[in-house]
Amino acid sequence: MVAKRGQLSQATQDRILPVAERVGLEERYAGRGVTIAFLDAGFYAHPDLMTPRTRIRAYYNVLTGDSGVEHLVIPHPSAWHGMMTSVVCAGNGYLSGGRYRGLAHESDVVLIKVGSLSRIRHDDIALGIEWVLANMVRHNIRVLNISCGGDYEATYLTDHLSRMAEAAVRQGIVVVCAAGNAGHEPGHPVVPPASAPSVITVGGLNDEGNPRLGKFSTYHSSYGPTIDGLQKPEVIAPAIWLAAPLLPGTPTAEEARLLNLLDAAEDHELQGILAAHRGVSRVLDEAVGREPYLIRQIIAAQLHDQKVIDQHYKHVDGTSFAAPIVSSIVACMLEANPGLRPHQIKRILIDTAQRLNHVPVDRQGWGVVQAAAAVRAAESRR
Q1: Which residues contact 336 (CB under 8 A, 6 or more apart)?
Q2: What's the pLDDT tens digit per position in 288-340?
Q3: By percentage, how much of the chain surpasses pLDDT 70?
Q4: First vs last Cα of the chain: how many Å apart?
Q5: Of 268, 289, 311, which one is at a domain's C-terminal end?
Q6: HSE (CB half, 13 Å, CA atoms) of 256?
Q7: Which of 45, 149, 310, 381 matches a 20 to 30 Å C-alpha distance to 78?
Q8: Cα–Cα distance measured from residue 236 to residue 132, given in angstroms and rounded to the nearest whole number
Q9: At what angle do helices 342-352 and 371-380 cross, to 10 degrees?
Q10: pLDDT at residue 274 tops 80
Q11: Which residues contact 175 (CB under 8 A, 6 or more apart)?
Q12: Domain residues for 280?
């Protein structure tokens, strides 16, 4: 059957549920009064963080020493990953009419660039944590999200990166780390800082995009025991079928816009649109002159392959995006009870998590994070 106009993109939008529906958190809390810091390869001042008010409190590049939000207006290729992790956590869904907003959509953020698209170095992540420690009071940083990992496995007893992560926790910052995506590899290594004892390490859950389906399995995330014999991850969170923003001004975003334009067009409009947008996509350029039903098939295949939701968002996967979900839950817990310390936050998340009966403990730790239960437990300790 050939899809009709707009049918495919609407079906994708219907399937990709907002995070709040995935983890079951009510809207009473949104990370108000909490600043979340992010370490990543790069960032962009996305409208979901900047409109209607600027919630980016600071930006710093450990590689060059540059600082200031003015450095975040150019869509550099290295910016996409950090832009996505920060928006999944704290974006307000401005470009989706509020649909794809993070749980901590009223929190402030601090963005620290510790690498590039091609490489993030072990020692530069440590430098990023050092900057956070030096500026935590100034910016009220309570949560640190690290969706990147070091170069190698190392014992936390001597590894500088691990020791910096431990120092951040001792200073009162809740450090949340992505476990990594090497669960299918021999040894499934968990590298610093995710292997540090006091951080909250997050693995991936695959709930098929909708927990109401009741189909739960693990994502191919890394898992312990670590080189020090520690259980990692502590919890798992959704790591697939997650809405994240496209980096504006890039070829990927331009192609997504064209695909959505074509998908919504009438059959008699397709050739004109294709002709007017030559050079955007080689695959679409080859569709010029073909019958409408064949063009529809090409559009459908590209929407699927590029994981396009609409002209502003795509769906992504990886523990890089599971960790920000937990960070956003932590921000809501701290809004509910600002007096909680990192070890209390971690214990609550562990105590309220629910294990999957058919999944080995090593793969899931204490189980699937339960956002509503964790926030209620935080409230009860006031």
Answers
A1: 29, 375, 378, 379, 382
A2: 999 999 999 999 999 999 999 999 999 999 999 999 999 999 999 999 999 99
A3: 97
A4: 57
A5: 311
A6: 22
A7: 310
A8: 25
A9: 130
A10: yes
A11: 144, 146, 165, 168, 169, 193, 196, 198, 199, 200, 342
A12: 247-311
